[in-house]
Inverse folding.
């Protein structure tokens, strides 16, 4: 079988200067104290791919401008709206007050398995991803509307946060069949 790879020009992607003109997805990312600039850059790039509305960087998150972040984001930090705030909990409370349903990607006692969750397209969602070691802060989990867990079968207890962002966004924002 011969299957020619497509050139970037053939993919039909929107140009960076028109990205913000696209219709909103109703989903924002909240990164809770993610230390690695590579992980933050990956979240920007993945957020761009799925057209999230904004990336919120909280606490100790790496922020643009950063050569390490840019290396992974491939410029998505320029096309995607983003903002840094000091306190994740204060942001979560603000987003809830603005009508967002707050979801933590976290393993908790009552977490909903990701494949069982169905996004209501009439609602807006703020999806929180946590620190590489400690996950989402407990007070942020407590303030959330629900937690989603990515099912896993292996011996490891978690995925890299950048991988988790991709898996969750794919499930939330994939076109319906």
């Amino acid at each position: 079988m011969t299957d020619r790879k497509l050139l970037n020009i053939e993919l039909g992607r929107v140009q960076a200067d028109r990205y913000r003109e696209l219709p909103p997805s109703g989903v924002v990312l909240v990164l809770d104290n993610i230390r690695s600039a590579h992980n933050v850059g990956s979240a920007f790039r993945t957020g761009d791919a799925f057209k999230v509305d904004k990336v919120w960087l909280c606490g100790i998150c790496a922020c643009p401008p950063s050569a390490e972040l840019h290396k992974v984001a491939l410029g998505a930090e320029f096309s995607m709206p983003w903002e840094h705030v000091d306190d994740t909990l204060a942001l979560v409370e603000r987003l809830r007050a603005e009508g967002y349903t707050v979801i933590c990607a976290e393993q908790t006692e009552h977490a909903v398995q990701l494949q069982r969750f169905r996004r209501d397209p009439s609602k807006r969602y703020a999806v929180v991803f946590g620190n590489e070691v400690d996950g989402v802060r407990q007070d942020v989990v407590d303030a959330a509307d629900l937690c989603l867990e990515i099912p896993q079968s292996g011996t490891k207890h978690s995925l890299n946060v950048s991988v988790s962002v991709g898996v969750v966004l794919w499930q939330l924002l994939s076109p319906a069949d």
